[in-house]
Write a structure and sequence with these properties.
homohexamer; alpha+beta; Tetrahydropterin Synthase, Chain A; 5-stranded mixed sheet; 5 strands; 30% helix; elongated
Chain lengths: 135, 135, 135, 135, 135, 135
């Protein structure tokens, strides 16, 4: 009797998409205006889902308050109002595309979720572009 | 050629989260303000999904009007504008967390959906907290 | 150069609509299933808007963080996870319809907003029913 | 390290649900007011998802701009502001239910998505009725 | 102490934008693909707002159930699943643009709303295009 | 018979809130983490509304396609994927708060809207923070 429990959160950040080993012409071809060297930004909407058995005593798969605090301390504090390229160590050698950000968020949360439970990260870069990663 | 067909519905209800065998101190530790003995409430948004083969004659997996009426008679009539703890028999011994409500809704609908088809219940307790159960 | 600044918040609560001087038959005629004596509840979505001149130094009409904290301390702390009929003094003699709740919220906030500025309260009882009050 | 990348699009169209070999009485029984011979219409919201490995150089599973252009040229140009029954060849012998439209869209896109990647089509006929097809 | 009470509804319809006295070239210049002679369609989202004094006995400006039923009988029954050009008499000589539809809906409702109250009609033709009319 | 016609658009941008004549301590007090010198960013959602008489021939207050193109050329091309502080001349001496951005957008559009018509600009900085300016 497994249930998937989902919690929505959000953070705002600036980023720039470019490959450090490519010249500007190549970066513009691949990344277009996302390569703007002065950065642009997004309101990232995040949905974190944990799947597992319902605890008989509490009726919870996971306590939403604990999940909310975990997302706050591990994800929002690390990414909110940040420049992803400049201030977030994981993106020193990794391009902060929505795909890569979802993997980074998954890796930040995975050690704190019981191993008997599945984890899924859904990240909206805009209301029209979003990605899903589940390890 | 299986397609998943989803229908959105909603109901409003009051509830309280607490374990009858625990004292108030323990209930407050686990359930916080959701343990308010005077109840609080939610607009529950519900998405019921049925997965199966497309019928060649109608082009339907399931007739949306029939699915809509089924959700009305089996779920909305039972839960809408109700106090879940006091008025819904399934929660006499079951804490009405979102997880448990989704299982109760699934069990109410499953006998009325053809066994060749899969059923999934998604329940939003708030726009930020939601659960998914598929048996 | 007046700008209207809006901040969205939310709270969950239980309530019951009935007139204390009417018998149950009359209350059912007027309020239908909203008269359930065991209560039902809603996720109330709230939009508080303040209209005034832009401050030349800050570029703000009102600091969103201050407005957010004000809504938290004056509205959410008073109404969230509460039974409006039982636990909120303003509704001792006032029926907690969306209309009346919006007036109560307006009156809670008005003394804390500079008198040179206009205040508007928008309250969603459900995604389909909402009210607006501006004094 | 597979990630699912989703892109939202939309188109408006008119349609009518009826089976050519059935008389009007039978069509009304099955399709109700959707059988209106003068047509009715919808704003279809479409979510196209592609699942695959992240490219190490670009950080993309699929370039969103390319996916956006593909949806435009293969789906929107074929269906937007069209009468599905009259003007879209795929529905000459196929009833344009949401289920069948999702299959037609899948088949239009599948040849243009690398075979190592999975494709999923989600189609909202209304905000309350939607379908999902993944081959 | 005036409060504005709003109720959301929706209907689906087909339409075509063209001026009967203009040739096809002129109609295409002005209306583009909305001039498709085979029609296209929309999910129209409608918000009807009534502004007035709160009734001291009920706490209502207007009973939402009565407003909901009024919208159903006067607007939805007249427009839902219809071809606006062919089946709705008001559009025999009036082009069914969002602007004109909002005026028609206003005129259908106005006689049934107490003259001491204000009426406003907001109509979404798509999530990106909408109009507001208040007489 | 005036109708208000609204069109939704969006753009992404990076910005930083700080007053050039204040030291960092003062800027942090007033702007908090919005003062991050490496910038952060938002998906700005924009609603532009034009109010005027319905043209008897077209049924339009304003042609949505023309309004859409105007927003594209005057607002999106100027602000989308830009660093507002660094790349947008209007913000050389003006702090790019939501309030000030809405005024800048209004001023960019006003000369291109017929003077007989009213203009309103609504700008969502996040789904929870938004502003409205109408001259």
């Amino acid at each position: 009797m497994k249930v998937k429990v989902s919690r929505k959160a959000h953070f705002n950040a600036a980023h720039r998409l470019y490959h450090k080993d490519w010249d500007n012409k190549k970066n513009n071809e691949v990344f277009g205006k996302c390569n703007n060297p002065n950065y642009h930004g997004h309101n990232y909407e995040l949905i974190v889902s944990v799947t597992g058995e319902i605890d008989k005593n509490t009726g919870f798969v996971v306590d939403m308050k604990i999940l909310k605090d975990l997302i706050k301390s591990k994800v929002e504090d690390a990414l909110d109002h940040k420049n992803l390229n400049v201030e977030v160590p994981e993106f020193e050698k990794l391009i902060p595309t929505a795909e890569n950000i979802s993997v980074v968020i998954y890796n930040k949360l995975r050690p704190h979720i019981d191993s008997s439970k599945d984890l899924e990260v859904m990240l909206y870069e805009t209301p029209r572009n979003f990605v899903t990663y589940s390890g």
